[in-house]
Amino acid sequence: MIEVICNDRLGRKIRMQCEPDDTIGDFKSLVAAQIGTTADKIVLRKWYSEFKDHITLADYEIRNGSLLEMYYR
């Protein structure tokens, strides 16, 4: 299990526990359930690269304690 932090830059930071083999789509579903919105409205980024839903967290080298930027569509 790893812990990933999502910051939406509006004052909300969410700490989510997940597996490195989870896809970004699965992770977005967990975050959406936590904050009460739908997963398709969430966009996860790090710097200027937007994460694709079908790629795993380990492929993007997201590890324990990583910080992701969360935006809404």
UniProtKB/TrEMBL annotation:
Keywords: Ubl conjugation pathway. It comes from the Eukaryota. InterPro entries: Hub1/Ubl5 (IPR039732), Ubiquitin-like_dom (IPR000626), Ubiquitin-like_domsf (IPR029071). The keyword Lipid biosynthesis does not apply. It holds the Pfam family ubiquitin. Residues 2-73 form the Ubiquitin-like domain. PANTHER family: UBIQUITIN-LIKE PROTEIN 5 (PTHR13042). This is Ubiquitin-like modifier HUB1. The lineage of its organism: Eukaryota, Fungi, Dikarya, Ascomycota, Pezizomycotina.
